[in-house]
Specification:
11 strands, elongated
């Protein structure tokens, strides 16, 4: 019988033997995997039991005291961090205060220079008038009609200038771009400020603080020589958020006169410029409202009625400078105003 079984095994196909062997390996693998899962579950349960036991042990020991000590250490470091941040804020506030004070000093210095020039002009004019009254050689015959007209013109110009600075605003229209009324500059839609290395405050010949004027300088009524926002080149733009929604009707551009310019020229004054309204809360399409020329030969304050009427009320206006009067490096804007009809929302 044993011989018959041997013969049967020898005659069995190789595929059957391989299949039986593979089935056996698969069964062994399943058994090993099930044992591995069982061992893992046992280990997890063991760790959980050990953790619960340790929790009970911590409750019976001094862990709460150690926890309070740790909390005290963390609180102390947090207090030190807060004190350090407070000192940093204080230093920043002091720096901003110094910057404001330096700006005030600069403005006062410029005003003193202007007043000094005006006083010198008045003194010279008074001396001329005194000589004309008391000098015996000054008479009707020795003074020609042309000289008289020139003197009268100079006196009239000086008186007009002084009165212009003393009286109320000559435009007589509300300025909805005025900073003190709520107008502001949107930096993302504005050209960069011209960087001038010579524009520094100095102490004993050592420069320590740049004082370039920011863009919102053009939204303020203080117009003195140098009190302007400058941008590089002859083309630039600025985006202005108005104090309230209006239907714009006109704009006003102001620059200093040649008479008071420290450089002796006003070639940095804007020449050609265009006005655009911006729809949809300052991020919509540009609406062309007009293109104009600021004439440096005329009065310093010039108002331009818009050539196109906006079809909706606007909150933002864009000023694009297209050229200046010849300065190769930068263009200066002293003051820009926006006029119009306000829209009342119920």
């Amino acid at each position: 019988m044993g011989e018959h079984m041997s013969v049967a095994l020898q005659n069995m196909p190789n595929r059957s033997i391989a299949g039986s062997y593979g089935t056996s390996l698969h069964s062994c693998f399943r058994l090993f995997r099930s044992r591995k899962i069982s061992i893992s579950m046992i280990l997890i349960l063991t760790f959980i039991l050990i953790g619960l036991r340790n929790c009970e042990w911590l409750k019976d020991n001094d862990f709460p005291q150690n926890s309070r000590q740790l909390y005290d250490v963390i609180a102390e470091y947090a207090s030190r961090l807060y004190s350090y941040q407070a000192r940093l804020r204080m230093a920043k506030e002091q720096l901003e205060f110094l910057q404001r004070e330096s700006q005030i000093l600069e403005n006062n210095f410029r005003e003193i220079l202007i007043l000094t020039e005006q006083v010198d002009s008045l003194k010279a004019l008074l001396r001329e008038m005194k000589n004309g009254v008391y000098n015996q050689s000054w008479n009707e015959d020795s003074v020609g009609k042309q000289d008289k007209d020139f003197l009268n013109e100079e006196i009239s110009s000086l008186v007009s200038y002084v009165l212009k600075k003393l009286r109320e605003d000559q435009v007589q229209m509300a300025d909805y771009a005025l900073k003190s009324a709520g107008g502001s500059i949107i930096e993302e839609g504005t050209s960069e400020t011209y960087k001038n290395d010579n524009a520094k405050l100095s102490w004993h010949g050592v420069g320590f603080l740049n004082y370039e004027m920011p863009p919102d300088t053009i939204l303020q009524p203080d117009v003195h020589p140098g009190k302007c926002w400058a941008f590089p080149g002859s083309q630039g733009h600025t985006l202005i958020k108005l104090a309230r929604r209006i239907v714009p009707t006109a704009v006003t551009v102001e620059h200093i006169s040649l008479r008071v310019s420290p450089s002796g020229n006003i070639s940095s004054a804007p020449k050609e410029f265009a006005i655009y309204g911006i729809s949809k809360e300052c991020n919509g399409e540009e609406i062309f409202l007009g293109q104009f020329i600021y004439n440096k030969q005329e009065t310093t304050v010039q108002t331009f009625e818009l050539q196109h009427e906006a079809s909706e009320s606007l909150l933002c206006v864009k000023l694009k400078i297209l050229s200046n009067w010849g300065h190769p490096n930068y263009t200066c804007l002293y003051r820009f105003r926006v006029h119009g009809n306000p829209v009342n929302h119920i």
